[in-house]
Structure prediction request, 145 residues.
Amino acid sequence: HHAGQVSLPGGAVEPGESFDKAALREAREEVGIDPDTVRLLGALSPLHVPVSRFVVHPWVGVTDTHPQFRPEKGEVARVLEVPVEDLCDPGRLAVERRTFRSGEMDVPFFKLDGEKVWGATGIILAEFLSLLGYAPDPWNQTRAD
Prediction:
C-alpha cells in the first residue's frame, strides 16, 4: 500500500487467523523467514494508519540463528538489515517538514542505510526501542531540511 517506502513484513489477517500467526505467515511470504525458527516475544501496541485505513498489530520475534532471507520479488525490493545498536544511535534520528492533504507537519524519521524510515514503520521501531530502554525524542533532533 506504500510502494517505495521502507516497511516491516505484514499484511491482512486471513479469516480465522490470529495476529501472531499472520505476522509469522507474512514474514515467511515476504522475506522467507521460516516460522518454525521464530520465538515470538510479544505484541507491540496496535497502530491505526489513517492513510491506508488499517490497524497494524505488530509482533516482535527472535531467531537463534541469522535467517536466510529470500525476498518476494513482487513485494520486496531488498532486505534492509539494521543492528539494534544503529537504531539507538541519536545521529540516525532526524525530523523534516512534510506536506500532507491535511497540512504541513514535522515528521521524525530514522536514517538507515541511505533510506528514510518513517510513518508506521518508524513508530513501530520507536516503540520497540522504548521497550528496550531507549526512548528516542524525535522532536529534539536536527532538522533534515
Remarks:
- Residues 141-145 have pLDDT under 50 and may be disordered.
- The radius of gyration is 16 Å.
